[in-house]
Amino acid sequence: MARWTAADLPDLSGRTVLVTGAGSGIGLVAARELARVGARVTLGVRDVEKGRRAVAGMPGDFDVRHLDVADLRSVRSFAQAWTGPLDILVNNAGVMDVPAARTADGLDVQTATNYTGPFVLTNLLLPYLTDRVVSVTSQLHRRSKLDVDDFDWRARRYRPMKAYQDSKLALVLFSLELQRRLTASGSPVRSVLAHPGIATTSLAAHSSANLVNRFAFLLNDPEHGALPTLYAATQDLPGNAFVGPDGLGGIKGHPAVRRPAKVGLDRSRATALWQATAALTGVGEGAA
Ligand SMILES: NC(=O)c1ccc[n+]([C@@H]2O[C@H](COP(=O)([O-])OP(=O)(O)OC[C@H]3O[C@@H](n4cnc5c(N)ncnc54)[C@H](OP(=O)(O)O)[C@@H]3O)[C@@H](O)[C@H]2O)c1
């Protein structure tokens, strides 16, 4: 079977897509490709000028808006300003291995960026969603020992890479519980997961874990890193499908449907995490 590429994207004329963190890396490639096949693409970015510069000269219908996913005030005002159908939401924005810091809401910055903010954003945008939510996770979710009762790192000593792994497992569990709720309410909206393998973006640029540039030849470039996101956003997949590269260890290659870690399919943990996040943020209690 031919390997799936961005050339296989369907026509998305008339469809509206939001990609968070789309000013660089995988999100920018995904935004560019979705616009190329006709979607109206909103880039939710924390630096609007940088976002505008990133898409300047690219063909397509782009709308660059301010969105800091780690800041719940920004997330709320972004969602409040949204009007009309949103066909596809891509929760792409992320940071990795960043030092301990708290947001204006008192949340752990890394967890808020990668999980808690996207949780709130998705819940607030659900009334507008028509097709699906794609959450961009990582193979590193497999290493997580997520503490559901302390997912926001209040009781334990903060460890940057552990917090990254946990935030990416939290997204996997979020997708599972979101899909359960959507199905239970009879919604046609799907929640799906994508991971890029390891892609040579700026994600790890500041990190002690940055072996990415030295071993680039073993890894996905950002173009290939965006393929699982594009596949998850546009192909006919079952709810909670997990899409990643088809190469060895899911590190490199073309998109294929795979299985997340077993812990990512634990329904009671997913429900417990949802409830804990809803209690912390005040969003999501009755959603879907
Ligand atoms: N690259 C990999 O190997 C890899 C592997 C597994 C998973 N992922 C995931 O893939 C996604 C995209 O990462 P990438 O590799 O493309 O890295 P990247 O080039 O660093 O892109 C991350 C994007 O997220 C944005 N962002 C960060 N914090 C934000 C916030 N608070 N609000 C809004 N946007 C924010 C960044 O915006 P600024 O430009 O403002 O910083 C940047 O555009 C992330 O979720 C990452 O965890 C990547």
Number of helical regions: 8
Q: Estimate the global geometry from the Cα principal axes.
A: globular
Which percent band covers the strand fraction? 15-25%
Helix coverage percent of residues? 25-40%
Q: Name the bound molecules.
A: NADP nicotinamide-adenine-dinucleotide phosphate
| Weakly predicted, low-confidence segments | none
Whole-angstrom Rg: 17 Å
Question: Numbering strands along the chain, what is their spatial order in the largest sheet?
Answer: 3-2-1-4-5-6-7-8
Largest sheet, if any?
Answer: 8 strands, mixed
Please give the alpha-carbon distance between the first and last residues. 37 Å
Verbal overview:
By secondary structure, the chain is α/β, with parallel strands linked by helices. It has one domain: Rossmann fold. The protein is built from eight helices and eight strands. An eight-stranded mixed β-sheet has the order 3-2-1-4-5-6-7-8, with helices on both faces. Helix 4 (about 110-125) packs parallel to helix 5. The chain is globular, with a radius of gyration of 17 Å. The model has no long low-confidence stretch (mean pLDDT about 95). Bound molecules: NADP nicotinamide-adenine-dinucleotide phosphate. NADP nicotinamide-adenine-dinucleotide phosphate (NAP) binds next to helix 1.
